[in-house]
Write a structure and sequence with these properties.
By secondary structure, the chain is mainly alpha-helical. The protein has 2 helices and no strands.
C-alpha cells in the first residue's frame, strides 16, 4: 500500500514539475513575443520601406 502511495506521489510530483516547466516556458515565449511586438513598429517601418 505504501509503495503504491509513494508511486502515485512521485508521479504527481513529476507532473507538477512538468507543469511548472511548461508554464515557465510559455511565460518565456510570451515575453519574447511581447518584446517582438514592442520592437515591431521600427521593424515594420524598415520592412515597408524596403519592400515599397
Amino acid at each position: 500500500m505504501a509503495g503504491i502511495l509513494m508511486e502515485v506521489a512521485s508521479h504527481f510530483l513529476w507532473a507538477d514539475r512538468f507543469m511548472m516547466m511548461t508554464c515557465f516556458l510559455m511565460l518565456r515565449i510570451y515575453g519574447w513575443i511581447r518584446a517582438l511586438y514592442a520592437g515591431r513598429p521600427a521593424i515594420s517601418l524598415l520592412w515597408t520601406g524596403r519592400t515599397g
